[in-house]
Write a structure and sequence with these properties.
The complex is a heterodimer of chains A (176) and B (727). With 176 residues, chain A is α+β, with helices and mostly antiparallel strands. Chain A is built from 8 helices and 4 strands; from the N terminus they run H-H-H-H-H-E-H-H-E-E-E-H. In chain A, a hairpin with a 2-residue loop joins strand 3 and strand 4. In chain A, helix 1 packs across helix 4, helix 3 packs antiparallel against helix 4 and helix 4 crosses helix 5. Chain B folds into 6 domains: 90 residues, Glutaredoxin (3-Layer(aba) Sandwich), CATH 3.40.30.10; 109 residues, Glutaredoxin (3-Layer(aba) Sandwich); 204 residues, Rossmann fold (3-Layer(aba) Sandwich); 94 residues, Ubiquitin-like (UB roll), CATH 3.10.20.600; 88 residues, NADH-ubiquinone oxidoreductase 51kDa subunit, iron-sulphur binding domain (de novo design (two linked rop proteins)), CATH 1.20.1440; 56 residues, Alpha-Beta Plaits (2-Layer Sandwich), CATH 3.30.70.20. In chain B, the strands form 6 sheets. In chain B, strands 14-13-17-15-16 form a 5-stranded mixed beta sheet. In chain B, helix 10 runs parallel beside helix 14. The chains are: A alpha+beta (176), B alpha/beta (727). At the A-B interface, helix 3, helix 5, helix 6 and strand 4 of A face helix 2, strand 13, strand 17 and helix 21 of B.
C-alpha cells in the first residue's frame, strides 16, 4: 500500500504500525490516492483530515503519514509548521478565533480581544487550564460586513462588543 | 455547430425546469431566506427554522421556503424576501424570531406588509405599479432620460397618480443585452417582471392605456429575451443600495438556491458551455474573451484572453486550470460570497476555460477558513458530474474534464500563483521566480492557467452576451464590472458591483451611504496588505486598475476599507506591515527582513519613540523591498506605508516630532485628563477605571493620576458630561 515497498518482515511491521497509528478512514484515503497521479500532493489534505479528527497534529501521526505517503518526515513537519492553520499542540474544547482582519480592526477587534484575555487569562495560542477554551488569531473570516466578528468552533458571532464577551463565554462554558 | 450537444443541453434544461416547478409550484407564496456564512452569523439559521415551523403549523402547501445565497447587504442581515403571486416582492431586514411571527401572520397569510421591518424603508408608496427606468449607458442614456421625463408628463396629463404608479431611474447597465445603438429606453414594471422597450411617445401612451389602466401587458413592447440583471432588479430594484449597481458577476447571488443545479439552469446557466462545446472552436472563445477586455479580478489585472492564449499555444497534452479561491486579503469577501451564492457559475467558467486551453483537469484552491463555500462547491461538482456536465465526454461532445478541491491552510502567500502551485503539489507554499510563467510551466511543470473566482464567474456571461456588450460596460482599458467588498467605517457595508470606472465617491458616499455617526470620511484602503490608502480628497477618482496604480495602491481583489477621522494612518500602516511580516514566507531576504525592520520602525513611531530619520528609513526600505523582493507579496508589502507617507506625511511627522497622534488612536501618545469645570463628580469614571487611578469624592471634581493611567480610554467613553479630555 505504501509507495515504499517493504522487502522484509521488519519493514512490513513498521508499515503496519503506521497504519495502526492513524484512524481507519485516513488510512483508506491514503490508499485511495496511492492509485492516482501525484499522490504526494495529497499531503496537505491528509494533514487537514488528521487535524479535523484529533484537533491538532501529533508527532506520531505526522511520522505515520510520512511513512505511508512515502515522503520524508522532515517535509511533513516542514509543511505542518509552514501553514498557520495547522496546530502542533492540543486545543481546548472551544476554540475562539478572534478575527484580526482590517475591517474588524478598525471596528475595535483589539478591544474585544483585550476583554477575552482579561476574562480567560490566556493569550493567542494558549488554552485555559480547564481545557475549555483556546484563543487564536484569525486572519479574516470574510464576514467583514458584520465586524467585529469572532468564531467559536464553527459558529461565527457577529458585531461582538467587549461587554457582550462575558455572556458569550458563559453560554459556552455552561454547555454540557 | 454540433446540434446533438445543444439538444442534449435542452433536455437537461427541461428536466431542470420540471424539477424546479415541482419544488416551487406556480402560484405559490415564496419566503426567501439568505443562507451564507454572514447571513448565518446574523441569525438566518434560526429564522429559517422558525419560518419552517410557521409553515408547517399553517398547513398551507402553497407556501414555500426558498434558500438563496447572500445579496451582499451585510449590515442589515438576515434578509428575508416575501414573494406573493401578483404582488411586488417585499424584503425585510434584520429579521428576528419575533419578526418572523409578524411577517408570517400579517404579510404571508394576510397580505399586509410589516412596514417598519422593510429593507431600507422602501415601498413607502402604496402604488400598484412601480416603474424602474434604466439609466444605463448603452442604449442611449439621454434618450432614456427624455423618455422618463415624458412618461412623467403624460402620467400627469392623464391624471394617473401615485396610487397607481411610481417611477424611478436606476442604473442597470445591463438591460439592453443583445442590441446596439437603440435610440430608446428600457424600463422594468413591477410586479410581473415585465421589461419594456420603448422608443416613441405612442409606445408610452399604449403602455399607459393598456398596462397601467387596463392591466393588460403590451406584449409587442415587452422584451422577450431575458437580460442578465432582470431577475435581480425584479427582486431588489426598489432598494437604492442595489439599484445603483450592475449585477453581472453576482447575477444569481441572492436570487437562486446555490445548491440547486435546476435553478442555475433555469437562470440560463450552462447555456454558454453548451454553445461553446457545440461550436467546438477554442480559439473563438479566447478571441471573444480578448475582445471583451476582461482583466484578472484577483488583483494583477492581467488580460484573461492573453493568459489563456499563452497556455493554449503551449505544446503538450497535459494542462491544468486552477481557480484561486484563497481569498486571503483581510477585508475581502466577494469570492466567498460568490462561491456560497452561485458556485455553478464559477464551475461553468472553469469548464469553458479547460476547453479553451485544452486542459482535462482543474483545481479549486479554497481557503480552509471557508467551510460553507467548500461544501457548496462540493455539492456543485457532484451535481455536475451526475448530469454529465463534468467528467468523461461532457454533453456528448467528446471533451472530458474534471475538477477537484484542494484546501489551503492559512498561508496568505499562497494567493501568489507560483506559491499556490507549490501548495497544490503538497509543498510549503513558497513562490519561485517568474518566468517561466505558470501558463508555460506551472503545476507539475505543465502549462497552467490560474484565475480568480470572479474572473471565472464573468466568463459564461461574456460568451452569452458578447464581448462588445461587456467591453462597453467598463472603461476604455478594461471591460465589465468589479465587485467590491465595502467594509469598515461605512453605513452600508456589503458587496457592491459597479462598472469599472465608477468613482470612489459613488461607491462610498452614494451606495455605501458615507461614514456612520456623521463622522468625516478620511480615506479608503484598497487592495488589502498589498494596496494603499486613498485620501478623501481624491474621492472623484474613477476606479480602474491603472488609476489606482497611479495613486500608489492597487485594485487587488476588491476589498475597500473605509476609514474616518478617528483612524490613524500610521497605525493602519503598522497593522498591514504586521500582517506582511507575519505572512512573509521567509524565502527572500528583502521581504523577510525588510518587513520586520519596517514594522519595528512603525512600532517605535506609534509608541512615541520615533527618530528624526525614521521617515527616510521607511522610504528607503520600502523602495528596496519593492524593487528586489522575489514575489508580488514582498514587492507590494511596502505599499501601505509608502502610500500613507505620500498622502499623510504630516501625521508621521506629528508622531515623531510632536509626540502627538492627530487621530488620537495611538494609546502611547494620548493623554487623558479631567476638566474640573465640567466634572460633576458622578464617580462613573472612577468606578470604571481598571487601574484605579482616578481619585475624587462624590459630587467633587475628579482627577486622573497620569503616572498610573494605562490609557484604556474607558473613562472617556463612560463620561456623560464631556469632562474627560483626550489629547
Amino acid at each position: 500500500m505504501s509507495r515504499f515497498q517493504p522487502t522484509n518482515a521488519c519493514q512490513r511491521q513498521a508499515i503496519d504500525e503506521s497504519r495502526a497509528t492513524l484512524p481507519a478512514d485516513i488510512v483508506d484515503y491514503i490508499q485511495k490516492v496511492e492509485g492516482q497521479p501525484h499522490p504526494e500532493s495529497q499531503l496537505i489534505s491528509v494533514l487537514h483530515k488528521i487535524q479535523r479528527h484529533y484537533g491538532y497534529l501529533d508527532r506520531a501521526h505526522m511520522d505515520a503519514v510520512a511513512h505511508l505517503l512515502g515522503v520524508p518526515a522532515a517535509k511533513v513537519s516542514g509543511v505542518a509548521t509552514f501553514y498557520h492553520f495547522f496546530r502542533l499542540t492540543p486545543r481546548g474544547k472551544y476554540v475562539i478565533s478572534v478575527c484580526m482582519g482590517t475591517a474588524c480592526y478598525v471596528k475595535g477587534a483589539d478591544k474585544v480581544l483585550e476583554k477575552i484575555r482579561e476574562e480567560l487569562g490566556i493569550d493567542f495560542g494558549e488554552t485555559t487550564r480547564d481545557g475549555l477554551f483556546s484563543l487564536e488569531e484569525a486572519r479574516c473570516l470574510g464576514t467583514c460586513g458584520l465586524a467585529p466578528v469572532l468564531m467559536i468552533n464553527d459558529e461565527v458571532h457577529a458585531k461582538v462588543s467587549p461587554d457582550k464577551v462575558p455572556a458569550l463565554l458563559e453560554r459556552y462554558a455552561a454547555q454540557p | 455547430m454540433n446540434k446533438k450537444i445543444l439538444k442534449r443541453f435542452d433536455s437537461l434544461r427541461l428536466e431542470g425546469e420540471k424539477a424546479r416547478s415541482n419544488v416551487i409550484r406556480p402560484g405559490s407564496t415564496i419566503i426567501q431566506v439568505g443562507s451564507a456564512t454572514c447571513e448565518n452569523a446574523a441569525g438566518a439559521r434560526e429564522i429559517r427554522e422558525e419560518f419552517r415551523k410557521h409553515i408547517a403549523s399553517s398547513g398551507r402547501a402553497d407556501i414555500v421556503l426558498h434558500d438563496v445565497g447572500c445579496t451582499g447587504r451585510c449590515s442589515l442581515e438576515p434578509i428575508v424576501g416575501i414573494l406573493r403571486p401578483g404582488e411586488r416582492p417585499v424584503k425585510y431586514q434584520q429579521v428576528s424570531r419575533e419578526g418572523v411571527h409578524r411577517i408570517f401572520t400579517d404579510h404571508v397569510l394576510h397580505g399586509q406588509p410589516v412596514a417598519e421591518l422593510i429593507l431600507d424603508g422602501t415601498q413607502k408608496s402604496g402604488s400598484r405599479y412601480e416603474i424602474l427606468f434604466c439609466r444605463g449607458e448603452r442604449c442611449g442614456n439621454l434618450a432614456a432620460r427624455g423618455l422618463q421625463a415624458r412618461l412623467r408628463e403624460r402620467l400627469e396629463q392623464r391624471g394617473v397618480g401615485a396610487d397607481v404608479v411610481a417611477v424611478q431611474g436606476v442604473n442597470f447597465a445591463d438591460m439592453c443585452v443583445g442590441e446596439s445603438k437603440f435610440q430608446g429606453g428600457h424600463f422594468l414594471v413591477r410586479p410581473g417582471n415585465h421589461l419594456y422597450r420603448v422608443a416613441s411617445d405612442a409606445d408610452l401612451e399604449r403602455f399607459i392605456d393598456e398596462h397601467l389602466l387596463a392591466d393588460r401587458p403590451v406584449q409587442e413592447l415587452i422584451v422577450q429575451e431575458q437580460p442578465i440583471g432582470q431577475n435581480f432588479f425584479e427582486l431588489y430594484g426598489d432598494i437604492s443600495f442595489f439599484n445603483r449597481q450592475s449585477r453581472i458577476a453576482l447575477r444569481n447571488s441572492g436570487i437562486i438556491d446555490p445548491t440547486s443545479l435546476p435553478e442555475y439552469l433555469n437562470a440560463g446557466g450552462f447555456h454558454s458551455l453548451a454553445r461553446v462545446l457545440a461550436a467546438g472552436d477554442p480559439d473563438g472563445v479566447i478571441a471573444e474573451l480578448s475582445a471583451s477586455k476582461l482583466r484578472g479580478r484577483g488583483g494583477g489585472g492581467f488580460p484573461t484572453g492573453s493568459k489563456w492564449q499563452m497556455a493554449r499555444k503551449e505544446p503538450g497534452g497535459e494542462k491544468y486550470i486552477i481557480c484561486n479561491a484563497d481569498e486571503g486579503d483581510p477585508g475581502a469577501f466577494m469570492d466567498r460570497s460568490m462561491l456560497e451564492g452561485d458556485p455553478f457559475s464559477v464551475v461553468e467558467g472553469m469548464i469553458i476555460g479547460g476547453f479553451a486551453i485544452g486542459a482535462s483537469r482543474g483545481f479549486f484552491y479554497v481557503r480552509a477558513e471557508y467551510p460553507l463555500a467548500i461544501e457548496r462547491i462540493e455539492n456543485a461538482l457532484a451535481a455536475c458530474r451526475k448530469h454529465g456536465l463534468l467528467g468523461e465526454d461532457i454533453l456528448g461532445s467528446g471533451f472530458s474534464f474534471d475538477l477537484e478541491i484542494r484546501l489551503g491552510a492559512g498561508a496568505f502567500v499562497c494567493g501568489e500563483e507560483t506559491a499556490l502551485i507549490h501548495s497544490i503539489e503538497g509543498e510549503r507554499g513558497q513562490p519561485r521566480i517568474r518566468p517561466p510563467y505558470p501558463s508555460q510551466s506551472g503545476l507539475w511543470g505543465k502549462p497552467t492557467v490560474i484565475n480568480n473566482v470572479e474572473t471565472f464567474a464573468n466568463v459564461p456571461v461574456i460568451l452569452e452576451h458578447g464581448a462588445e456588450w461587456f467591453r462597453h460596460i467598463g472603461s476604455d482599458k478594461s471591460g465589465g464590472t468589479k465587485v467590491f467588498a465595502l467594509a469598515g467605517k461605512v453605513n452600508h457595508t456589503g458587496l457592491v458591483e459597479v462598472p469599472i470606472g465608477t468613482t470612489l465617491r459613488e461607491i462610498i458616499m452614494e451606495i455605501g451611504g458615507g461614514c456612520p455617526k456623521g463622522k468625516r470620511f478620511k480615506a479608503v484602503q484598497t487592495g488589502g496588505p498589498a494596496g494603499g490608502c486613498i485620501p478623501a480628497t481624491h474621492a472623484d477618482l474613477a476606479v480602474d486598475y491603472d488609476t489606482l496604480t497611479a495613486m500608489g495602491t492597487i485594485m487587488g481583489s476588491g476589498g475597500m476599507i473605509v476609514m474616518d477621522e478617528d483612524d490613524c494612518m500610521v497605525d493602519i500602516a503598522k497593522f498591514f506591515m504586521k500582517f506582511s511580516a507575519d505572512e512573509s514566507c521567509g524565502k527572500c531576504t528583502p521581504c523577510r527582513e525588510g518587513s520586520k525592520r519596517m514594522l519595528e520602525i512603525l512600532e517605535r513611531i506609534t509608541a512615541g519613540e520615533g527618530r528624526e530619520d525614521d521617515i527616510a528609513k521607511l522610504e528607503r526600505l520600502g523602495l528596496l523591498m519593492k524593487r528586489t523582493s522575489l514575489c508580488g507579496l514582498g514587492r507590494a508589502a511596502a505599499n501601505p506605508v509608502l502610500s500613507t507617507l505620500r498622502h499623510y506625511r504630516e501625521e508621521y511627522a506629528a508622531h515623531i516630532t510632536e509626540h502627538r497622534c492627530p487621530a488620537k488612536r495611538c494609546a502611547a501618545l494620548v493623554r487623558y485628563s479631567i476638566l474640573a469645570d465640567k466634572c460633576v463628580g458622578c464617580t462613573a469614571c472612577a468606578r470604571n477605571c481598571p487601574a484605579n487611578c482616578i481619585a475624587g469624592a462624590a459630587k467633587k471634581p475628579h482627577a486622573i493620576d497620569p503616572e498610573r493611567c494605562i490609557k484604556c480610554g474607558r473613562c472617556f467613553r463612560v463620561c456623560r458630561f464631556g469632562a474627560v479630555e483626550r489629547n
